[in-house]
Design goal:
The chain is of the alpha/beta class. The protein has 19 helices and 16 strands. It is globular and about 75 Å long.
Length: 561
């Protein structure tokens, strides 16, 4: 006879509960990842919310076992005994740290912030699941500069609010977790009413679907009963989609004159974020273990206010104030002096072997990443540490990798490495930033120069639609060639060359000086030569640089300066 207490007697979360929940949810997310990917309202091979959430959760599972107890951190299948999981506080802290460092993509970062703060709360009050869900939801909202309702945030808040009401009525832990999962599911079904993109596509939010899977796993572990949900609008993959439902990271609007950066030790940065949003633009905050890396652009009169807001939030350090306007065109052309720091390295995310090999020849550290995936913060940190550099600049080459890059930079800073992120959104923007990199410059000036160069580079790409879809350029079907400009679908055509010409016709506006063409694995030599000949004949004054990037899924990627 088992010595385990009856399910109805469960009154608090234990280390075993966390272990079983993480393993159950990992399996559930693995089973649901393809269907969640398909809910991404975007018809090119970037539908990756399910994959990113699964990989993020897989990182959380690495925190179950204390380092060194099980070889290579392998978690055995089934129930993990208490002596392996350790005490609740230790287990929660490990899991919270691992999930943040392993987060991938926008949804992964949001999920990691939720789980990190959930774990921190449950470690203090193992019987208060409602409070843990509230704390986790607050952390998720805090991770997004501009929260959008109708996303995973709305689903998380609905579950937390229902849990709080039930707990206040004296409902036990099992009733609270069931109610929270039900409320999250109900909110998920309402997301199309909150976002026009979801409503037009006929789907629910992808990130919210992943969260419901995770909450249902907690219900299954605590009650022994798995909720039956119609998580998706149909058994088949959705056939009509619109624009991505995840929020974008903010970019500078160019009207502010100073970049202010600092680290702050604080348990909460909600008020700080709100204050900085009122003061300036390009607000980005990411952190782990109560250490936050803060970035904002303000006018000169707002510098003191920004720093005072940081001081009011906690202990600040690593303060940097840089006049953006004085850095334009200030790169040295010759006579390099010795760098002020012992060493500086660029760490770049790459998705093709050609680009990777070229950059490594230039001394750039690369993080090779499979197609349709983003790296984790731990992977970025590992590559940076292998260089033994005292200064590191991270270039994510993908909008969805910005969040993990910020986390990696914050963690590197806490380890004594000076680190910063140049928020590149494509490999061509990363190449533009690398072209102006000058290790002899002051670190801040070098970072700002690279950021300005990347921001001044418009990018385009060509790929093939993987499903029927309704896009900003009209309706497309499986096999159609799609042309993207600055991340948005702008052209639909029948051939790679046809679409490439139309995309370049829009990108190469008057004043364009340099065109970079990165060809992929799917390109033939004839296609590359024909496109190059067209560019030279049509735009003879534009300098053309062409390289074999070797990236899958994208026959051509363009960058125009």
């Amino acid at each position: 006879m088992s010595d385990e207490p009856a399910l109805n007697d469960v009154r608090e979360v234990t280390p075993n509960t966390l272990s079983e929940w993480l393993l159950h949810a990992k399996q559930a997310l693995h089973q649901a990842r393809d269907r969640i990917d398909a809910l991404n309202v975007f018809p090119v091979p970037d539908g990756d919310t399910g994959t990113n959430m699964y990989l993020t959760w897989e990182s959380a599972c690495e925190g179950i076992v204390p380092e060194g107890i099980v070889p290579e951190g392998i978690v055995p299948e089934g129930i993990v005994p208490d002596e392996v999981s350790g005490n609740l506080v230790e287990a929660a802290n490990r899991i919270g740290r691992q999930v943040v460092l392993g987060a991938r993509g926008n949804s992964g970062v949001i999920m990691s912030a939720l789980i990190r703060d959930f774990m921190g709360s449950i470690a203090k009050e193992p019987s208060s699941l409602a409070r843990a869900l509230q704390e986790g939801t607050a952390g998720a909202y805090a991770a997004v500069a501009t929260p959008i309702e109708g996303t995973i945030l709305t689903v998380a808040r609905a579950g937390a609010e229902r849990a709080e009401v039930l707990a206040s009525q004296g409902v036990g832990l099992l009733g609270v977790v069931r109610g929270a999962a039900d409320a999250a599911y109900e909110a998920l079904m309402e997301t199309p009413m909150l976002l026009a993109q979801l409503r037009d596509a006929g789907v629910v939010d992808a990130g919210g679907s992943g969260l419901v899977v995770v909450l249902d796993s907690l219900v299954a572990v605590l009650t022994g009963e798995s909720p039956r949900r119609a998580l998706f609008t149909s058994e088949s993959l959705p056939q009509r989609v619109g624009a991505m439902s995840e929020s974008n990271y903010p970019v500078s609007d160019g009207e502010h004159e100073f970049e202010v950066m600092f680290h702050v030790e604080s348990k909460s940065i909600d008020l700080l974020r709100a204050s900085l949003e009122r003061l300036g633009s390009s607000v980005m905050i990411a952190g782990v273990d109560n250490l936050w890396n803060v970035h904002v652009h303000v006018q000169e009169r707002g510098i003191a206010d920004a720093l005072n807001q940081g001081i009011a939030s906690g202990l600040i350090s690593n303060v940097s104030v840089t006049p953006l306007s004085s850095l334009h065109g200030d790169q040295m052309l010759g006579g390099h002096r010795e760098p002020t720091r012992s060493s500086r390295v660029l760490v770049v995310v790459t998705h093709g072997h050609g680009v990777r090999d070229k950059l490594m020849e230039m001394g750039v550290a690369c993080v090779p990443t499979p197609p349709r995936q983003q790296p984790s913060a731990s992977e970025l940190i590992s590559v940076a540490q292998e260089t033994f550099a005292s200064e590191v600049v991270l270039l994510p080459s993908d909008r969805d990798a910005h969040g993990v890059a910020e986390i990696a930079a914050s963690e590197l800073s806490s380890l004594g490495v000076r680190a910063a992120v140049v928020p590149t959104r494509s490999i061509t923007q990363s190449l533009s930033a690398i072209a102006v990199h000058d290790p002899s410059q002051d670190f801040d000036r070098d970072v700002v120069a690279m950021t300005r160069s990347a921001g001044a580079t418009h990018y385009g790409a060509v790929t093939v639609a993987t499903r029927d879809a309704l896009t900003m350029a009209g309706e497309c079907h499986v096999g159609d060639v799609l042309g993207l400009i600055d991340g948005d679908i702008a052209v639909i055509g029948a051939s790679v060359l046809e679409v490439s010409v139309l995309v370049l016709g829009r990108l190469l506006a008057p004043g364009a000086e340099l065109l970079t063409v990165v060809s992929g694995d799917g390109c033939s030599l004839d296609q590359i030569l024909e496109l190059n000949l067209w560019v030279r004949a049509t735009y003879p004054l534009v300098d053309l640089e062409s390289m074999n990037g070797g990236q899958p899924l994208w026959p051509f990627i363009f960058g125009v300066e």
